[in-house]
Amino acid sequence: MSLAVLLTAALYLIVWRGINEPMQAASAEVNFLIEPGQGVRTIGANLAAAGLIRRPFYFYWYVAFKRIDKNLQAGEYLLNKNMSVRGLAKKLAGGNVAEKEKTITIIEGWNINEIADYLEKNNVIKAKDFIALTTPAPGTCFALESCQVSFLSEIPAGATLEGYLFPDTYRIFKNSSAEDIIAKMLKNLDGKVTEKMRADIKQQGRNLHGVITMASLLEKEARAPADMKVVSDIFWKRISSGVALQSDATLSYILNDKVAAHSAADLAVDSPYNTYKYRGLPPGPIDSPGLNAIQAAIYPTPTDYFYFLHNLKTGKIYFAKTFAEHKKNKELYLNN
After folding, report:
1. What is the average per-residue pLDDT within 225-239?
2. How far is CA 155 from CA 37, 44, 215, 246, in A?
């Protein structure tokens, strides 16, 4: 037998074993994610990093040989270390996402307690377990490795994760822990706030915490993205002018109500979240703002307006340049 034949046979055996032999015989489930747009090389590298394959080469070669490299589908998969490269590729190409998944939808404007209540009512996790991980204490998501994202160090000492749990629709495993879900939300926000957005925030002399705080107010004060940008301009101008924001949304946060206009007693509540009593932004966000609100906080629409009010029934906002115009709007539109 010639040397060439021997080498070919040896190479065939190595490749055959590489695509057919699993990492281990014992079962060991692994949650694996393919993000939209990820290519074969990224997927192969991630499979190796997750301990599911020995070398990415075997995965690259097999999916190319089978011509299924274009069929690999984004999603969350429940894979196993006792699966071969052949089995893994077949599952990923078939879009056979984890049977143990479920969908959760976190609504823009929900605060931590509302998110936690929703998760408990949908039999995902206990509300108290979720809330406990959002505080700045040892063993919470501020310290857990799975939760680490670039902006955690920018959150002021003593602040919770309020505002940083990005509202979105998520696919999660039914056995996901509170840590898994919070980590997914934090990483989602980390990806939504682009490098350009971060650079623009810095150029404006602001920080991410202030922007997320502003965005959380905008989420409550306006519905349409265009209105959010105008309200953002008004609020930033008020802060620059030393005028109180006078946002009922911040009062509702500390009073745990959904009142549109608060009483004189409510307005006298002594809390840094009372933006009638204290000027400037409150200490932190009051809810989880969506991307439209975050963008509005960074990129307000400049106007001559300094006042606004909105009709809660219709959602329409009425802007005014002067206090006299604002009073007139109240007479004409408030509660109508």
Report:
1. 97
2. 31, 35, 15, 24
Record the pTM: 0.73
Q: Are 173 and 242 in contact (CB under 8 A)?
A: no
Instruction: Please check whether residues 60 and 157 belong to one and the same domain.
Output: no
Listed as own residue / partner, the contacts of 275-278 with beta carbons closer than 8 Å and 24 or more positions apart are 275/244, 275/245, 275/246, 275/247, 275/250, 275/251, 276/244, 276/246, 276/251, 277/244, 278/244
Query: Nearest 10 degrees: CA dihedral of 86, 88, 94, 100?
Result: 150
Structural domain boundaries enclosing 79: 3-93
pLDDT tens for 119-136 read 999 999 999 999 999 999
pLDDT digits (tens, 9 = 90+) for 166-196: 999 998 887 889 999 999 999 999 999 999 9
Q: How many domains, the chain?
A: 3
Tell me the pLDDT tens digit for each residue of 283-312: 999 999 999 999 999 999 999 999 998 876
